Amino acid sequence: MTDVMKFEVVDGVGVISIDSPPVNALGVAVRRGIRDGFDMAWADENVKAIVLICDGRTFFAGADISEFGKPPQEPSLPELVTHMEASLIPTVAAIHGTALGGGLEVAIHCHHRIALPTAKVGLPEAHLGLLPGAGGTQRLPRMVGVPTALDIITSGRHVGATEALKLGVIDAIANSDSLRDEAVAYAKKLVADDAPVVRIRDRDDLIAEHRGDAAVFDNFRKKGARKFRGFKAPENIIKCIEAAVNLPYEEGLKEERRLFMELHDSIESQAQRYVFFAERQTSRIPDVPKDTPTRDVKSAGVIGAGTMGGGITMNFLNAGIPVTLIEQTQEALDRGVSVIRKNYENSAKKGRVTAEQVDQRMALISPSTDYNDLSNTDLIIEAVFETMPIKKDVFGKLDEIARDGAILASNTSYLDLDEIAASTKRPQDVIGLHFFSPANVMPLLEIVRGEKTGKDLINTALKLAKKIGKSPVVSRVCHGFIANRVMTVRGREADAMILEGVAPDLIDRVIYDYGFAMGPFQMRDLVGLDVIGRGSNEKTVAGELVARERLGQKKNGGYYDYDENRKATLSPIAVDIIREVAQEKGVPQNPGATEDDIIARLLYPVVNEGAKLLDEGIAIRGSDIDIACIKGYNWPIYRGGPMFWADTVGLDKIVSKLGELASAHDEAFTPSPFLEKLAKDGGRLSAVSQ
Ligand code: NAD
After folding, report:
1. Residue 114 contacts by C-beta under 8 Å, 6 or more apart in sequence?
2. Which pLDDT value is given to residue 683?
3. Which overall architecture, per CATH, does domain 300-478 show?
4. Which residues line ligand 1 (CB under 6 A)?
5. CATH number for the domain formed by residue range(s) 5-264
6. In angstroms, what is the span from residue 512 Cα to ligand 1's centroid?
7. What's the pLDDT score for residue 69?
């Protein structure tokens, strides 16, 4: 018996129950409890079999993440599971809730597994840039075969009980709610049948067929190449499974340990673990405690059924919240609604939703051209054109129509939310809810907090983000808020560099190799140059491309020409335009930029802008800026976001390079005093928190 472990003998079966709320994480006390339980069972000669079960809401849900980075304490998880597996009497893991990571590794070191129908299992370590380091990579292939093990471990996906039974991860599903009784009955039957103790390590049939078969691994690498690009964990997982197939068990385990440590010490995994914690931080707002009151959001209104309004509406429909969608004209309204339907129908074609779900969601929209239909709505989000007079006009109307206590939100990208709020008599009810395009897909939701925004609104928005599956980041008011403000400088420098003679396709390749899905010019061609280029009076390359009817992939190509397979080559017309604009502006030519020059020129200013956001108190934490860039702009997760990445590059190096760029080009590069001080004090941007 220990604080977390109870041991009882039931009809000759030793039942070890672990109770360590909230999720029975495998911290040192739990590991010791399990070990002691097995020792007690073995010491009692009346015990003929063992059941390992958890109290509370779940089986072991994984490692104890609070132990990460601390000195290991005995027994380690690998030591514990080796100890358990040596049992000479049969052992049964009884699984409810989620058996994930180390939790599943404990279960697969028992000889048998029984689970509730609602249970889920999985090895999600890849999400933290790691691999299952307590035998998981050596045992799963022996249980489910090589292709399935490759899929389950590299994807980290959760596998439900029915599938787990079919695949052979578990041996039985408990029919009733009494998992414990059924597990004991299962164990008693093993004893009665005198079933031989079979250890998974000794199973060979499923791996033997792939021994010496390099193709199964190479094909898997090829198939996953796009998804795996830049991440270290998938390759190390594949190598572990190769070792499981080709080496004796003990040797395979050593290889697993070596490859685990390699990941553990890699920047990629450190970045992924940092991001994991950073995401959980963003909803902590120092002066808005978790118990701050919230307002009910049972209905929503969206004004403007354009690109953003349509996507925003879908988020609410998906969450079962009815939406009143407002447009200026019936025609615009019909167009907006039909785009939403088409999006859903495309998802249905891909099997992501059923036809019935499409109908259910569409039935939640009430299209209207009459603002009065918003008079009873809990939350109204404005997504009309990005001009202050129109926004003010809309908010003025809302002030007259909306019920008392309704939340009035703007999706503005750049405009001053306080000015918008001032066009109402209830600025405490006004907030920014800034979605990213496509709004039904991109996970970031910036919650913009105006001078007078009520704390209850902030807390409501944080809860709402969770409900509609978005990652919230809270920003104070400034031009562009967090993500757009820091990322705009990347585009500005890309534009400057092409005018100096650096090829756009070189810049795109360097940014792609850094880990983005595409470079800035490929991105513009995809989104449409008319969308990007609008609003500028200055002569720009993008503007000239639009003037020549080159709108990007959708019409005539843009920076690139596209063949019938959408293969892109740099367009000679774009090259001519660049030269023309550069000559007209008298830009000095300096075409010989290296990859390092491009990274420094495009991304160091992003870091600098992030430092300014922290200095100005716009962002609460450095890690919030990283989450905004990852969730809003697909900054590569394994780089950790611009702030974490800057720390790995070295703030000293960045400050000195920014100084050089400022002298060579423009004062805009001047390092922020905040960044300079942090560099001097040996601080880290990713750790700044205010
Ligand atoms: P859009 O032009 O596609 O859509 C705007 C819609 O609003 C149009 O359909 C228009 O008919 C309608 N509209 C205009 N005035 C109206 C009024 N008074 N009442 C009702 N409807 C009205 O524009 P968009 O790209 O969806 O942008 C909308 C807002 O979202 C802007 O503030 C923009 O800055 C912001 N935003 C855009 C993006 C993006 O990538 N497009 C991303 C984030 C935020």
Report:
1. 92, 93, 94, 95, 170, 171, 172, 173, 174, 179, 182, 183, 186
2. 98
3. 3-Layer(aba) Sandwich (3.40)
4. 303-309, 326-328, 332, 383-386, 390, 394, 411-413, 435-437
5. 3.90.226.10
6. 30
7. 75
